[in-house]
Specification:
heterodimer; A: 258 residues; alpha/beta; six-stranded mixed sheet; four-stranded antiparallel sheet; 39% helix; disordered N terminus; B: 225 residues; mainly alpha; MetI-like fold; 9 helices; 80% helix; 0% strand; flat; binds adenosine-5'-triphosphate; binds magnesium ion
Chain lengths: 258, 225
């Protein structure tokens, strides 16, 4: 599989940003989880989002593939705005892969079946084709020997790599990561981050909620700092880490590093 | 004393075999229909829509609370009084028993399945939704198999209770296993032999179910340790 096949968003005008958020807001009851969030993620770039617990990072990323529904503002993915229309949501879910903090692998299916299920039911691929694609991606995340194991038989790091492969099987043009390494034991963090770095190097558009600042420094095009449902500031990793504009960002970063 | 010969001919004779067959057919039909309806009810029980949730809750409250005997008699004697539709030939004891037991069984199975569906974490549904699977695909491919693994022991337990509860239908003269046993006793006055033979049939059916349970549990527990 070429990287072109992995990252290309078919039928989208060149120059269209992969993701654009304009004044997005989301409340749970009277609690404002997101307020006035705007950001643009260009195709092939990597956005890292950090911020304290409860600042709305997960809510933001989950609005992009409509696991949460925003109340106001506009979210555009590959030029298509997210609305209630079911056809749109389908298209977006096909274009956007997601990796969760707790992997969310299907425990009753083998690793290979985890990777082929949605290919068969959503992409309508044949059993043979789906298996071939799944095996190719399991190679890519360096875990092909576990194809016939069940998730419970794998370490956390291995499970997360399978989850990445499972998402990639759908040929997404955008990948969302919500704290993919924070449920892992320290010695397994590296294998997952390495997988993500390789994905970034292949040109995948990524939005990644993480507190792994080494990873951010290495691959991020932009780092956004969130607090209280707002993006406080957003900049290249060099600038944000060396000269944060806001006191709050400075404090958060220094807490992370020490 | 115990007439061993009579006992054997009771076990291997036609009347009880026919009764057991009817018991089995009734139990299986009730269980199948109840499972389908309860799956629907159980999935609705976790829905956002209050009216649906409350209706299911009310149903379960009623049919879990009322004694089976009462519902059986209500259906058999009460419904014909309610409407002439139930006075026609198709409203047989078998159908009445089927209806009454299904009404009750749905309530119990709904409770079991509701709990089992809730036990499948939200993360599973979200993981599937993020891959582009539709709601009903998620339900059938992800939620159901995992919920069944949790529910199977309780479901088989219900099936066993149901199998025995069919004997209540003797009060509406359904010719199931217990009714035919009592017919035989009425003419022979041999209690031990006929009750013993009926017991053999019940134990046999329950044993088959237990074996089935072990099999299906093993099948569904794949991937879990
Ligand atoms: N379903 C929900 N119902 C009510 N409140 C919610 C819900 N989901 C999230 N929230 C609230 O919204 C706020 C933002 O949550 P979110 O999960 O986006 O934070 P986060 O930045 O991802 O935090 P963390 O680092 O802990 O994952 C939190 O205060 C949370 O309590
Ligand atoms: Mg979060």
């Amino acid at each position: 599989m070429t990287s072109e096949q992995l990252t290309g968003a078919a039928g989208v005008a060149p120059g269209t940003p992969a993701i654009q958020l304009v004044d997005v807001a989301k409340s749970y009851g009277s609690f404002k989880a997101l307020q006035g969030v705007s950001m643009t993620v260009e195709r092939g770039s990597r956005m890292v989002i950090c911020g304290p617990s409860g600042s709305g990072k997960s809510t933001l990323i989950r609005c992009i593939n409509r696991l949460e529904i925003h109340d106001a503002g506009a979210i555009t993915v590959n030029g298509a705005e997210l609305t209630d229309q079911i056809v749109r949501i389908d298209r977006i879910r096909r274009d956007v892969g997601m990796v969760f903090q707790h992997f969310n692998l299907f425990p009753h299916l083998t690793v290979l079946q985890n990777c082929t299920l949605a290919q068969r039911w959503v992409r309508r691929r044949s059993h043979r084709e789906a298996s071939d694609i799944a095996m190719a991606l399991l190679e890519r995340v360096r875990i092909p020997e576990k194809a016939s194991s069940y998730p419970a038989e794998l370490s956390g790091g291995q499970q997360q790599r399978v989850a990445i492969a499972r998402a990639l099987c759908m040929n997404p043009s955008i990948m969302l990561f919500d704290e993919p390494t924070s449920a892992l034991d320290p010695e397994m963090v590296k294998e997952v981050l390495d997988t993500m770095v390789r994905l970034a190097e292949d040109g995948m558009t990524m939005i990644c909620v993480t507190h792994e600042m080494g990873f951010a420094r290495q691959v991020a095009s932009q780092v956004a700092f969130m607090e209280g449902g707002k993006v406080i500031e957003s900049n290249t990793p060099e600038r944000l880490f060396s000269t944060p504009a806001h006191e709050r960002t400075k404090r958060f970063l220094s807490n992370l590093l020490h | 004393m115990f007439d061993y010969h009579l006992f054997l001919s009771a076990v291997f004779g036609w009347p009880l075999a026919k009764g057991a067959l009817l018991t089995m057919v009734l139990s299986i039909s009730v269980m199948t229909c109840s499972l389908i309806v309860a799956t629907l009810f159980g999935s609705v029980a976790g829905s956002q829509r209050k009216a649906l949730r409350w209706s299911v809750g009310g149903y379960v409250w009623l049919f879990r609370g009322a004694p089976a005997l009462l519902i059986l008699l209500f259906v058999w004697n009460g419904l014909p009084q309610l409407s002439p539709v139930f006075r026609q030939a198709w409203f047989t004891p078998f159908f009445a028993a089927f209806l009454a037991l299904t009404l009750i069984e749905v309530a119990y199975l709904t409770e079991i399945l509701r709990g089992a569906f809730a036990a499948v974490g939200k993360g599973q549904r979200e993981g599937a939704a993020a891959l582009g699977l539709h709601r009903w695909q998620i339900f059938i491919l992800i939620t159901m198999p995992q919920a069944l693994r949790v529910a199977v022991p309780a479901l088989i337990n219900e099936f066993i209770s149901l199998l025995k509860a069919t004997s209540l239908a003797t009060v509406i003269s359904l010719k199931e296993l217990m009714t035919l046993t009592q017919f035989a006793i009425a003419t022979s006055f041999r209690f031990l032999e006929w009750y013993g033979a009926a017991l053999v049939y019940y134990m046999l059916m329950v044993s088959v179910l237990t074996v089935f349970q072990t099999r299906i549990e093993r099948l569904l527990s794949k991937g879990h340790r």
